[in-house]
């Protein structure tokens, strides 16, 4: 989850945030399981799971044995959810923000995740020479188009044949431009896996054996809850739970750039 927005004059895409620490706890439901996270100031989405990341999580389609890269993991919600979906696989979370990386490591432990690790560094530097079945990212749009294009250009080098880049963005972040860029440069058919709350989730696949995204579990999505010391009341539809934006069945809306 690497989308960054300004925090005062300091962007989240920075190695050492200077914002005064202000820790809190967030919780959300994923496939019927309540996941708990520590968050802090100076990182992305300190007040709750943002709708773009929630939509990304709902539509990742990770297989049980997949090797997944959560590129720009923030405090770790995408990586934790991917690890839950890939119990026989492996998840690597990367992050340039040192405070966020510490939180992500802590949150792996909080949610008893044993098949994931966090690595510190920008973009693909922490996974040089490695390849994955799925790369998931909410790109650092605020860091500028040049950086986002570098991310998109380098992604195929880190995907196995038939591997998928799954990213989320909205119109104001230029997602239509990036969709077209992907189609022109290395993914002729970019699939729109879902839309909601102004966001769209894109899937770009490198040539090779096609495994396809796993279908979503019917009736299950991500429920977002801000926890301020109270114990959440259980299941989907619980008072105070906020469902992420509407999504469509993966593959239902296919477009090229």
What does this structure look like?
This protein is of the alpha/beta class. The chain has a domain of about 160 residues: Rossmann fold. It has five helices and twelve strands. The strands form two sheets. An eight-stranded mixed beta sheet has the order 5-4-3-6-7-9-8-12, sandwiched between helices. Helix 1 runs parallel beside helix 2. It is globular, with a radius of gyration of 17 Å.
Mean of residue pLDDT values:
80
CATH homologous superfamily of the domain at 50-212, by name?
Answer: Vaccinia Virus protein VP39
Order of helices and strands: EEHEHEHEEHEHEEEEE
Biggest sheet strand line-up: 5-4-3-6-7-9-8-12
CATH class of the domain at 50-212: Alpha Beta
Structural class: alpha/beta
Biggest beta sheet attributes: 8 strands, mixed
